[in-house]
Amino acid sequence: MIIETRAYARAGLLGNPSDGFFGKTISVSVRNFGTSISLYESPELHIEPQPQDSSTFKSVYHLRDSVSMLGYNGGIPLIKAGIKKFAEYCEQNGIRLPNRNFTVRYRSSIPRQVGMSGSSAIVVALFRALIQFYKVEIPLEHLPQLVLNSETEELGIAAGLQDRVIQCYEGCVYMNFDKELIEKQGYGEYERLNPALLPKLYVAYNTHLSKVSGKVHSDVRARFDRGEAEVKDVLNQIAQRAAEGRAALLEGRPDDLHDLINQNFDLRCQIYNVSESNKQLIAAARSCGASAKFAGSGGTIIGTYRDDDMLNRLFVELKKHNARVVKPFVV
User: Fold this and answer.
1) CA–CA distance, 177 with 107 (Å, rounded to integer)
2) Residue-wise pLDDT tens for the chain (331 aa)?
3) CATH code of the domain in which 41 resides
4) Number of domains making up the chain
5) Does one domain contain both 207 and 284?
6) Residues 171 and 226 in one domain
7) Is 163 annotated as catalytic?
8) Which top-level group of life is the source organism from (predicted)?
9) How far is CA 259 from CA 75, 168, 201, 231, in A?
10) How far is CA 327 from the centre of its chain?
11) CB 74 within 8 A of CB 53
């Protein structure tokens, strides 16, 4: 029997990047793009490489373009790290795994390195497949931390919990990563919000603006760890925008998200170096009357729009910046 599992792209709606700093966020899963894992029993444990895992290239320019789009490692290190963490979790919790091996392969339609969490989607889908294959129960609230540890502890990727929470829970989720709460119970407060409460949303991405998020966050992380007052204050203000957004949605004021989203990005610019090309993408969206902020660490933006006329203007204007606009499918 072949086990098939999926995990979807995500977009940070409000609060990011405070999730990596004990803040608050609201995120949505974007089912327009996804990663699938196929896993079936086999005599030996085998990870099937995909084209992006190849070490053979047509030229130095082919290698350059491949690394720019897909990163250096492809998905195999993520698969290995996830399997290792799964095995360690089972051992630490007294779960004895049967003597069964498997072959695993992954496929992904998530644009890489543009802030839609393609890497963590691979690990989330993998954990879902391993849970089914070995008939293991892992509490949902603990799963995001396991996925995060697979990336941070095993591969040295700088990341936060937000991506893994929304990809595990799906839909629309408000998250509170209060430090004392996480230290006490091992996870934050994760509240599902009805996607029907959301205003009209668009997502636009440009793969030419891709970045590795760990590099983007490294300087702010160091400043935060040093206790710089400006960084802590701005991150607290960004987290507050998520709390205000949650209240607006629950109280039937979805239009309030327009200003909150814009403020989120403007605050981010106070402590992060944002490239001119990314700023131009934001400005182009706002010139149409839409709100706009990063969905992650750059390359993809998310915002609200008023009506179909504004959405059509977004299609036209953002195409000038090599960006594709989609209406996120959130359920």
Assistant:
1) 31
2) 999 999 999 999 999 999 989 999 999 999 999 999 999 999 999 999 988 788 888 999 888 877 766 667 679 999 999 999 999 999 999 999 999 999 999 999 998 778 899 999 999 999 999 999 999 999 999 999 999 999 999 998 878 899 999 999 999 999 999 999 999 999 999 999 999 999 999 999 986 755 544 455 568 989 999 999 999 999 999 999 999 999 999 999 999 999 999 999 999 999 999 999 999 999 999 999 999 999 998 889 999 999 999 999 999 999 999 999 999 999 8
3) 3.30.230.10
4) 2
5) yes
6) no
7) yes
8) Bacteria
9) 37, 28, 14, 22
10) 17
11) yes
DSSP string, 65-84: HHHHHHTTT-SHHHHHHHHH
Based on the number of CB atoms within 10 Å of its own CB, is 311 exposed (0-12), middle (13-18) or buried (19 or more)? middle
Asked if residue 31 lies in contact with residue 329, where contact means CB atoms within 8 angstroms, the answer is yes
Cβ–Cβ under 8 Å, residues 143 and 127 = yes
Q: Which residue among the candidates 53, 163, 225, 266 is catalytic per the annotation?
A: 163
Taking the CA atoms of the chain, what radius of gyration do you get in angstroms? 20
In a 3-state reduction of DSSP, which class is residue 33? strand
What CATH number is associated with residue 245? 3.30.70.890
CA nearest neighbour of 37 among 112, 133, 111: 133
Specify if 292 maps to a domain: yes
Q: DSSP state, 21?
A: G
Token pair belonging to 237: 């203000």
| Nearest Cα residue to 39 out of 143, 137, 126 | 126
Distance CA 4, CA 73 (A): 23
Whole-number Å distance between alpha carbons of 325 and 138: 36
Peptide bond into 43 cis (omega under 30): no
For the record, the structure tokens of 164 come out as 């893994």
DSSP 8-state code for residue 311: H
Other Cβ atoms within 10 Å of 215 Cβ, number:
10
Three-class DSSP labels, 122-163: HHHHHHHHHHHHHCCCCCHHHHHHHHHHHHHHHHCCCCCHHH
